Amino acid sequence: MGYVIIGNSAAAIGCVEGIRRVDKEGEITLIASEKHHTYSRPLISYLLEGKTDLERMKYRPDSFYRDMGVDARLGVTVTALCPRERKVVCENGEEIPYDKLLVATGSAPFVPEIPGLERVEGKFTFLSLADAQALEAALTPESRVFILGAGLIGLKCAEGIAGRVKSVEIADLAPQILPSILDERAARRVQNHLERQGLRFHLGDTAARFEKGRAFLKSGGTVDFDILVVAVGVRPNVSLVKDAGGQAARGIVTDDTGLTTLPDVYAAGDCCESVDLTTGERRVLALLPNAYLQGECAGKNMAGLPARFDQAVAMNAMGLFGLHLITAGSCRGEALVQEDGGAYKAFFVEDGLLKGYILVGDCLENAGVYTALIRERTPLSTVDFGLLRERPQFLAFSREKRREMFA
Fold it and tell me: Which of 214, 178, 213, 192 is nearest to 317 (CA)?
């Protein structure tokens, strides 16, 4: 069996390991545009901050490709997928045949069309290691940095560079920071913390046009800057599958085995859609744990072992200037909120099930218990949820459930 994997991040690595759990001998060819050894993208802000280095960013050891029997062709871009001929075409003209193919092409930064943006010289995105290295080379202690986007990418970029520049200002059209994962009260708490670190926000606002070194905001204000970081979002890389005739909406459409609408072509990771367990909706969940599990599932199926990935849940765990937070699921149903000086907890309950939660501050211990309640769709009537909300612990479960969990 000849396997080809396009990509080299979490989904691709999950696929390699999924295949090798079933097929120890098949040929695996991995092709990736980035020249780097597989690395953990969430760590690029820590690289800028000096809290990690290139060696510790590696997602797998140096020997990974050799140990797994992978022919890794890094720095090579696939330009076309030919499902009838069962081959992929690379930019250098090489054609590589496959029996089973995984597309794990991830996503690319979305750069909006704003008048004058094309003339901004010190302009960067913040999604890849190359992006971080290019930004780092431009930073000076006198740099004034303006970040478009107060989501996960924009705020992690701000954390990574704040101690190395003169100022950081951030704008976002949303009325709050981290609008995709936090409710209003949690966002306010986190924003207050970030403002104490020197960050300045322009929320419900964004750049209407640019001139050299100056952004003119829709509100009428201006921001002067030396460096601009565009972090307003990403777009899944779907063109290979879509151009080959495969179905793609926001992301590549797959079934719960990872199979696309093209024969023997699978997809996993940030380029494809998942069914959100908490909402039943099909959407892109651009998260490393989901990407790995999708890739692993696809790899097993490619190697002939039936597997399903049907527990996709939006989940984020992050720290910002020493303040830590975890979110999972969706903000659906009744909100049960507990708040004190050191912690914020919000639980979202619908139809007797936990649909999501937000934890900020000194209350993150054993949060995996809440995630398990979501993934397993555990009826809250079968647990002491009041006790769990105070502190996740095994005593909140029935004796039978505790026996099952420990087993």
Answer: 178
